[in-house]
Design brief:
Radius of gyration: 22 Å
Shape: flat
Number of strands: 8
Distance between the termini: 82 Å
């Protein structure tokens, strides 16, 4: 009887460990089990997205207000077009807000940071953010620095 109790407790401990690993993998991958609800779509165009991916977060003052839902090429302007889904409870962003691609840490994940504007007209479904700033690509910065040193 004592051996059976030991086997059951070891099995329960292993199951708890596997469950903890699954939860950790979901959190690290950026997947959300909880549904954030419906939102509205906003588009922004960038010269260089520098590794931004779908499901990357969209934040305002460090607080997540949405996520990137699609990335494609605008064939007319030859720019990256990023479609973001902004949570429906974020209904206070003005139409002159700006978007920039930021990096979490030195070499961390890319995300979009929104800086609010001052217009009274608000962003709505299908709006376009005109004022954008592309990602800083570390390789380009290092290349420019080295090229300038060689030129001197």
């Amino acid at each position: 009887m004592r051996i059976r109790t030991l086997e059951i407790s070891v099995g329960a401990l292993i199951l708890a460990g596997l469950l903890a690993l699954v939860v950790l993998a979901i959190n690290v991958s950026g997947l959300n089990v909880a549904d954030q609800g419906q939102g509205y779509k906003v588009v922004a165009r960038f010269d260089n997205i520098g590794g931004l991916t779908e499901r990357a977060k969209v934040s305002l003052s460090g607080v997540q207000i949405g996520q990137v839902s699609a990335i494609r090429i605008d064939k007319k302007r030859l720019m990256a077009e990023v479609e973001m889904t902004i949570f429906s409870d974020v209904n206070y962003l003005s139409s002159d807000s700006s978007a920039q691609i930021l990096t979490a840490g030195l070499l961390g994940e890319k995300y979009i940071g929104i800086t609010p504007g001052f217009e009274e007209e608000l962003l709505k479904d299908g709006s376009t953010i005109e004022d954008t700033q592309s990602a800083l690509v570390l390789e380009e910065i290092v290349g420019k620095f080295l090229f300038n040193k060689v030129s001197e």
